[in-house]
Amino acid sequence: MSATTLDEQAPPAAPPAPAAVRPRHSRRGRPGPGRPVPYGWAIGPVLLLVLWAAGSGLGLFDVRSLPAPWTIATTAGDLVDSGKLQSHLGTSAQRALLGLLFGVAAGLVLALVSGLSRVGEAVIDGPVQIKRSIPSLALIPLLILWFGIGETMKVVTIALGVLVPVYIHTHNGLRTIDSRYAELAETVRLGRFAFVRHVVLPGALPGFLLGMRFAVTSAWLALVVVEQVNATSGIGYMMELARTYGQTDVIIVGLVVYGLLGLASDALVRLVERRALSWRRTLAG
Predict the structure, then answer these.
(1) SS3 sequence of 196-247
(2) Helix (H) or strand (E) segment spanning residue 34
(3) pTM for the whole structure
(4) Between the CA of residue 249 and those of 57, 62, 83, 253, 281, what are the distances in Å?
(5) In this model, does residue 250 exceed pLDDT 90?
(6) pLDDT in tens, 138-166
(7) How does 120-130 read in b/e, with b if 16+ C-beta sit within 10 Å?
């Protein structure tokens, strides 16, 4: 057989193996909000302060309606030197803390009972939703008749404002737990107490912490209202007294204090949330 015939019968040569294709990384990186900005929580307030100072310096704001930031700082310094600001702040913080503790405890217990029992949900969820639609300000006349105008009424008002967001978000966290976890718990024959401890509570923790962020804000909002109802101390009382005498700078000092308290308490809850939920992989990082 000739060489030509052998060449014709030989199978064609296999094509060269393609080079390994490497994934091309996008220059834009992973979709999402990006890396955390250092001290990002302070950028917005600082920018607002800069705009306020610029407007005051350029004469865009009437100093009788909105004093300049340096005027507010001077007034705050005078209140600190006289001890009035610390005294009022201590009273307000005590009221808010007591209302927050009672409201969180009540909201958490109600959410657990309602979230783990259909009968409990039928009994509890309706009244909580009714309270959700009634603002705390509308309840004050009734609470005054029940508890008087003392500290009890103020703490109860704050607690009622805190209870609703804690209940709503914790209850939602309980009801959105993946059913596969319940099946796994049944497979390994976890008891009811162990099921609540190892499955229910960790699963509801994200919802509870989200509710806490709304709860701390609700506590300060309710505090603003109750401290202007026959109070003799507190930041709200200080602001109401300043309104009587036309002291706009003192009113703004009170508003700044409320705002800083709300910002600090929210930052604290977010810090706890990041630490407690470090196992989650989310876009927030």
Answers:
(1) HHHHHHHHHHHHHHHHHHHHHHHHHHHHHHHCCCCCCCCHHHHHHHHHHCCC
(2) none
(3) 0.76
(4) 16, 12, 17, 6, 46
(5) yes
(6) 888 899 899 988 889 999 999 999 999 99
(7) ebeebbeebee
